[in-house]
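User: Fold this; tokens only.

Assistant: Input:
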Amino acid sequence: MKTLIISGGNIETGFALEILKEPFEEIIAVDGGLSFCYAYHIMPTRAVGDFDTLPPEILTWYKTHTRLEIREYDPVKDAADTQIAVELAIGLGSSRITILGATGTRLDHVLGNIQALYLPLEKGIACELLDSHNRIRLLRDNCVIQKKELYGTYFSLIPFTTDVYGVTLKGAKYPLYRHHFTVLGTGSLGVSNEILEEQVEISLEKGILILIESKD
């Protein structure tokens, strides 16, 4: 089951509407993401959050005129709204999760949303953060990316765990062989690489990497 989460960060209208042309069995609106849905006549299947950034009249409209399942939380809680939506998507049995509106000017929220990717990773569920410039995923297993399928021109590998051991890159402009990534001083080595051949092969022995594919 494919699930789309529309979070309350930076939502690029044209890009988001293109993504919404894909078939999703579940669409979960998160806090301010419900405002985007309201503006463009998108009916989500569920809505979650404390709704502190949503105009109250929009929440009232959905409660009054629809049967939308709304899970409203106290603003004082132990998990961010996007994480709550990810947990819900996992509980619904999602096999693939796409998250829009999870990037933007609030870097604390961006980092928190990247951390939330660990939850589906642990369950073996494909999950990605998307905007018009970036695709962000977590890797703990070997991965092959075809050049024609790369989300843009560049890809970067950044350690998610403190240490990532045995990282090997084949087919890249800057190849590696069993490299040890650590956040303690050498975590930026994997930033801004390119694919030279038809595909790049990424393998690692232990740890978790953040994979960011970028268009600029």
